[in-house]
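BUG-225 | component: ligand-complex export | severity: low

The export step for cytidine-5'-diphosphate jobs runs without errors, but we want the raw record kept on the ticket for reference. Input record follows.
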Amino acid sequence: MERLFQVAIDGPAAAGKSTVAKIAAKTLGFVYIDTGAMYRSLTYKALMTGTDINDGHQLKQLLDQTEIELVQEGNGQKVYVDGTDVTDRIRYPDVSEHVSLVSSFEEVRMEMVSRQRKLAASCSVVMDGRDIGTHVLPKAQVKIFLIASVDERAIRRYKEEELKGRHPSIESLREAIALRDKKDMEREVSPLVKAEDAIALDTTSLSIEEVVKKILQLVKEKQLS
Ligand code: CDP
Ligand code: CDP
């Protein structure tokens, strides 16, 4: 059987992970797996059901009763929680604000990682998140750690909001991004950190096309080696 190929893309919020991961996966014919969407889905369900998000055990019990589906549709990916399309809803500020706390519990992470590894067991994947290269797929053939300055990342998020007709202050976006990064980097279980064998790529002044090109080049090099 042909060996499955794994591309792990990690990095802080709004560094461009999902945008480039999606395009790279499509070009390569691999499956794209957005692990952040899984943590966001659980956070959304916890908020909707009034689950105590400070209690990792309750969150794990909730997760055990929650079906999270990532479905490739056209150029994008839809996210379903228990059959309901939550693709847009899980990006709302209430979810963004609480997702780092929900993601910090070991019980929750163990179950998420088990689901993520199952998704990658039967096909070649591009998976993005925070702990993919360090923990979920430690043997990934290509590992990328995407970064960009926090100012640039706040501007990128602002442009997305603007397209949706919303005009939050760039400063509030910047603060929210910096706070989430801090929580993700400081948590005890699988914190956000560059894997030793990951290639760091600063995208601050790179276009999406340039980042994708670089990733595809790294994959090609590995496939030929
Ligand atoms: O797209 P954005 O960078 O805003 O975040 P995301 O990838 O959707 O991830 C949302 C949150 O989920 C992160 O801030 C982490 O707290 C958590 N997460 C995680 O802990 N581990 C992962 N593998 C992916 C996300
Ligand atoms: O997944 P992550 O939170 O790391 O980032 P994202 O959701 O892909 O958002 C990044 C935003 O920056 C998107 O609106 C992209 O169009 C834009 N962008 C990028 O991803 N990469 C660049 N090199 C330049 C802009």
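Assignee comment: Attached the raw record above. The two ends are 18 Å apart (CA to CA).
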